[in-house]
Amino acid sequence: MTDFMNRLTQMLSTPWVPWIILGVISVGVLLGQVQKTGPSKPLRFSETGWLNALGWFSVLFSPVLILLFLSVLFMLGQVGWKIVTGDTIREGSDNLRWYVLSFVGLLTALGGIIGTPLALLRVWTTERQTKTAEQGHITDRINKAVEGLGATKQVRRQRRNKKGDLLYEDNAENKPDFKKPIIEDVTEPNIEVRVGAIFALERIAQDSLRDHVQIMEILCSYIRDNSPAQGAINKARPGLPNYTGSTDKTDHRDIPRLSVDIQTALTVIGRRTEKQREKEIKTGMGTISLAGCNFQKFVGKNLDFSGLDFSGSWFGEAHLTDCDFSGCEFENSTLDDGSMIRCNLKDVDAKGAIFSDRLLPGTSFEGANLFRASFKGSRLIENLNYGPRVNLAYANLVETHLDHQDLRDALNSSPVFLSSLTVEKSFDYSLFLQSNLDLLKKPSSASAEHQNFISQIMSQIANDPRVGILNWEDRYLPTYDFNVAEQWSSWKETRGYTFKKYKQ
Questions:
Q1: DSSP state at residue 442
Q2: What Pfam families does UniProt report for this protein, alphabetically (predicted)?
Q3: Are strands 319-321 and 339-341 parallel, antiparallel or unpaired?
Q4: What pLDDT shows up at residue 362?
Q5: Hey, what domains does the chain have and what are their CATH numbers?
Q6: Which letter, b or e, does each residue of 381-390 get, where b requires 16 or more Cβ atoms within 10 Å of its Cβ?
Q7: pTM to 2 decimal places
Q8: 303 DSSP 8-state letter
Q9: How far apart are CA 490 and CA 504, in angstroms?
Q10: What is the pLDDT of residues 458-478, one digit of tens each?
Q11: Are 141 and 200 in contact (CB under 8 A)?
């Protein structure tokens, strides 16, 4: 036994063994340098956390494993050579027994060392197969859900004429026989199946973050195809800057409720989580486009639509509470009637948008671009039931229609609003017809900054020939009662303003 241990020590002290160790270390350092000079994207062995950690452990442990493999292989060769040449027989039966046991032990160790990377490879392969099966299952779920979005059903119902009256077959006297209704087979969307498909897509997006962007694109495409802006009922809004519709007044009862599937799809988009929105940014999805859609009579609460494109869309009679629209595009959109309670419209681009006849308590327009927007008939005042007033801080109100507004609470109370509004440009070309101008009466308790702010507004509006007001103690401004074309043109030239200056 002592002789065997001496030989083992002698083999490990062979001069070229340290060179093997040094070579393995050099290979490890070289691999590290290659990783540093490679792309900045971190190396991942698997999307699964524990398997990725196991992969890195294998890489770090590989030099030790290689050294053990070479050492065991060398010692196995030495022991085997002793047994084959018969040196162990001459040294005695005791040494022969120890050499045989050593050979068996080294052979077992060699098998274990070789089996270690094979076992890791098997685990990695199994994980890849499992992932592939899961992705295939998710793909099948998406395909099935997309099929559900196009579901239709056959319905038998009584035919109606263009006026909506029920039709009946004529009798022998050419009069309607009310016992014989005219029945027809009609194909219409299967709303129940479609809503189920939308919820299925939402569940897939929650379970598989990598498929989230694709699902959002599917839902947006579905909304754009099934609820275009052309289907919106245009209520009469004569006199607005971008109004081209009919002058016939449309009753709100004539506007149908938003289809349940569209209501559900938009709600699902508004329920995106923070991780899902981060995924959209990382994948370069850009702005989710819902431009040119009809969302009349949509009802939403606690939804996040930040950064979406709603340009040219219709939100007539929509009721929105505690929703986030920050950074959205609302250019030439129609948001008349309805309400937006405590909503966040910070930094929105709402050029030419219509907010007429809308309840806006607690809504923030901070930093919004409201160029040529219209708030005619909307309520910007503080509402006792809903709390804070509308915030117009840093808003661009150039050419904005503020007709019939009570501006006391929107502009006259909080120093936050006053200090952030640039009077010279914020109200250029804006209309204040029949607006409450109590904001022009300086309160005795107002700060110097506050009084200066009111003086600037009074000076600007007083020089506007469209107003024609002489006595600022009057509570409301009159409507147009004179031809202002020439006066308006000369007033613009005097002040040196042009429309091009603000179309940015």
A1: -
A2: Pentapeptide
A3: parallel
A4: 80
A5: 2-143 (no CATH), 227-258+294-502 (2.160.20.80)
A6: bbbeebeebb
A7: 0.62
A8: -
A9: 24
A10: 665 555 544 443 333 333 333
A11: yes
